[in-house]
Amino acid sequence: MRKMARRLPVATALAAGLVCLSVSIKAEPTLLGNAPANEIRIGSFMPYTGPLAAFSSIGRAEAAYFDMINARGGVNGRKLRLISYDDSSDPVTAMAHAHKLVEQDDVLLIFGAFGTPSNLAVRPYLNEKQVPHLFVASGDDAWNAPEAFPWTMGWQPQSRREGRIYASYIKTYYAERKIAVLWQNDQFGRDMLLGLEESLGNDARMIVADTTFDISDRTIDSQVDFLHSSGAEVLVFDGSPAVAALALRQMAEIGWQPVFLLDNASASIANALRPAGLENSIGVITTEFLKDPGDPAWKDDAEMKEWMSFMDKYYPEGDKSDINAVFGYAAAATLVEVLTRCGDDLSHENIMQEAEGLDRFEVPLALQGITASTGPNDFRPIKQLRLVQFDGQSWQPIGDVIDSAFQDK
User: Fold this and answer.
1) Angle at 57 between CA 263 and CA 64, to 5 degrees
2) Residue 134 and residue 341 in contact, taking contact as beta carbons nearer than 8 Å
3) What radius of gyration do the chain's Cα atoms show?
4) What are the distances in angstroms from CA 217 to CA 80, 242, 258, 281, 406?
5) 114 neighbors 156 (Cβ within 8 angstroms)
6) Measuring CA to CA, how many Å separate 302 from each of 181, 334, 337, 366?
7) Model confidence pLDDT, tens digit, residues 268-320
8) One fold for 31-156+303-378 and 159-288+385-408
9) Which stretches does DSSP call E strand in 273-351?
């Protein structure tokens, strides 16, 4: 029997503790609204505290990247100031921060805000205000809806397409094997399962069990034990790195060795595989689009060496093995490209026009063959992924780079 545990996530209002990361500059007397004329204010929110705090290094690396750009003279003569608040991944708190950023902090745009539930909460407000809501740090399909929400754009590959890639892989190499799915109980976790089911089609009967966990769960032993009892030979996981580590540890404890497919967001050697035990992580399969600094395969890579120098100078307290810091660096570079192309026209309309005009932009630290391209009807900048498998030390490629846009066909 297939057990379904599809509960609706419950949003809880948290105390609005704030973390503000900003680049310090001297304010000039001429103002644009309440912002100095030589300053570009950028707003964001991140889970600096709470169960998803491992992702906070994204925001810290973005602030450090802007600090580096300012040291080089800024963007078209203007300094960048990132104002980033802690929402603890709570949509209610995120909504309050969005109002403050727009109405009190006078930010020009919202950039790289983290998480599916929080960004879904603020998207209607930001689109009503016609404030650019760029490069959302979430792989949800919702960020590619230019007709309904023309001011919101994603950045990373979409989770639903990632699920379709996994389905194709399973059908090719593990046909007729029983599949189990362990997913985070929210829109983020649900997306990959939907993509998996869509691409499997009639073969979705291969999914013999699925169950959920909440981001606040401290143990998932019972969920792993249940899925093990289903007889599944393939396990697809979609959730946070910390919970992925718990799952891998429990699987090793009970001696269950299914083919383990891990979502890209959790595919971090530093944050998931090492805490699980590298010996317990051998054979894990995932997709990637950025170079993992925890992977020794990149130790002599020129881009990685440049990133390491950046970390030493601008983010010395950061973890040099943390791929989330790479993510923040690469996303910030994409925004700087857009702002640079804007020249002196920093109207909301022109910012969106330039964001819609990326043409194979070479994202720093992206894998070879992976670039960012957009259009008026395509709000998915990065669409390529590569399947890889962990050998105990490094991610080894499985085939060529895959354009996830083809998963729609």
Assistant:
1) 135
2) no
3) 21
4) 38, 10, 23, 21, 36
5) no
6) 38, 19, 21, 12
7) 999 999 999 999 999 999 999 999 999 999 999 999 999 999 999 999 999 99
8) yes
9) 285-288
**Domain 159-288+385-408 classified CATH 3.40.190.170?**
no
For residue range 177-187, what is the model confidence (pLDDT) as tens digits? Answer: 999 999 999 88
β-strands 234-238, 179-184: how paired? parallel
DSSP character at residue 340: H
Count of CB atoms situated within 10 Å of the CB of 128: 9
35-36 and 79-86 strand pairing: unpaired
Of 323, 314, 406, nearest to 366 (Cα)?
323
Q: Which CATH superfamily is domain 31-156+303-378 in?
A: Response regulator (3.40.50.2300)
- Residue the block writes with tokens 């919702």: 142
Closest CA to 283 of 402, 392, 387: 392
Per-domain boundaries in the chain? 31-156+303-378, 159-288+385-408
382 to 62, 152, 289, 375: CA distances (angstroms): 18, 15, 8, 12
